[in-house]
Give the backbone structure.
Amino acid sequence: MEHQSFRRSQLIPFDGAAAGHEGVLSDPSGIVVIKPCKEAEIDFYQSASSHPHFAIYIPTFMGTISLSTNADSTSAADADPSKLTHTATMIPTAAGSAIPLESPHTIAQAPVVESAWAPSNGAKITTDRAIVLKNVAAGFKKPNILDVKLGKRLWDDKAPPAKRARLEQASQETTCGLLGLRIEGMRIWQNGDEVDGDGDGFTFKDGYKVYGKPYGRSLSVETIRQGFEEFFLLERGAPAKGLARKVINRFLEDLDGLLYVLEREESRIYSASMLFVYEGDKETLKSTLAAEPEEDALKRAGNNETHEETHEGDDDDEGGPPAVQALKLIDFAHAEWTPGQGPDENLLHGLKSTIKLFEGLLKSS
């Protein structure tokens, strides 16, 4: 495999996430996301190339970075940040070619992630490994972003009893318990509309309404539709119309494709999320949909039998047409392939609930 060194450089904190861990970084262009993680998540991303249909529905994996002073280091905690070097291990993509990373890059401090399942009394632990992913929101002018956590069960088999009990309680007290899903966070562009400060469940920042985890946990089975209505800027209780209806229908096609794939994979994926992104700038969204080639529109209107063909344009190269929407499965700290055990019904339950909710947005409540 090819290796590439990164000098201390210009990596910046990533602030485009709807939810997630602290310590995530990006390059100044915003094209890549660098996420500190454990070896299990690296292994899962590397193994996804052997599951090409599944790989369509996760962020493009560009490699790994070792955040250490030398190749033998095991932690960046004791490193002098001014002398940090970052080695990127290039991983061949599903298409068989490695994706090069730009250099030089920098990092201001050693990233940290929350402990996976090892008891740490709520403290953060250091890690010297990070994955480099293509930013799902790259290519959008004003991306609207929704993070939906999947699963009724949120813990894996390695979780100690105290962790299991805590996550089980969190599931039962939120919509995860019955629906197998929970809104983790949202960022919604307001198209220049004036918002008078922070509001009920959100903060207003840089033209976006930003909803955090408390908002999603406050929703019930009866009110969760309101969260999705907020994401698509819909009138409460009314069926989606116009541009929003077109975007929702496109997401439904994506969700059906993901369902098709997951029903044919044998895996166990706990506490993962679906990341929904669509163009929030109304004029850009309108012009992009209007300019869509007729053959693409006909393809979307047809049946969805060949999912790899239907979604081959999801990761357009730079310079391609503006993006309309994207759906990716993210967060694989507790994921593994389980041959012979059948599909992941826990994950599928949340996915099917999401499909029903999106279908419901096309009708009056």
